[in-house]
Amino acid sequence: MMSITPGRAGILLMKGLVRFAILSLLEKREMTGYSILKNLRSLTGLNLHAGSVYPLLYSLEKSGLLTSFSIEKGRRRLRYYKLSEAGRELLGKTKHIAQKIFEGEHRA
């Protein structure tokens, strides 16, 4: 796994990219926090920790971009996260902007 120590600006950029990746993962299906963490590690190659991902999930939920619900499985309670309509709309706009940025890079 890759480990990056980019300074404050880089940290903010990486958090934004991880938020974008979370929304992208949840566009396809609802997932537990643990599943999101595993998929993020696989997708990004970054050595992400629960202590950095769960606060992002809570922040995205608090801002209305995600919703969550719990399911009892045996003795365990699993919290699933789901993309809200606002999250789906923001993700679509963000994908469009990202596409324009990357297409512009190829034209230069």
What this model shows, in words?
Helix 1 (7-28) packs across helix 3 (50-62) and helix 1 packs across helix 4 (85-107). This protein has a three-stranded antiparallel beta sheet. It has 108 residues and is α+β, with helices and mostly antiparallel strands. The chain has four helices and three strands; from the N terminus they run αβααββα. The protein has a single domain (30-107), classed as Winged helix-like DNA-binding domain superfamily/Winged helix DNA-binding domain (Arc Repressor Mutant, subunit A), CATH 1.10.10.10. It has helices spanning 7-28, 33-44, 50-62, 85-107, and strands spanning 31-32, 66-73, 76-83. It is globular, with a radius of gyration of 15 Å. Pfam families: PadR. This is Transcription regulator PadR N-terminal domain-containing protein. InterPro entries: Tscrpt_reg_PadR_N, WH-like_DNA-bd_sf, WH_DNA-bd_sf. Residues 22-91 form the Transcription regulator PadR N-terminal domain.
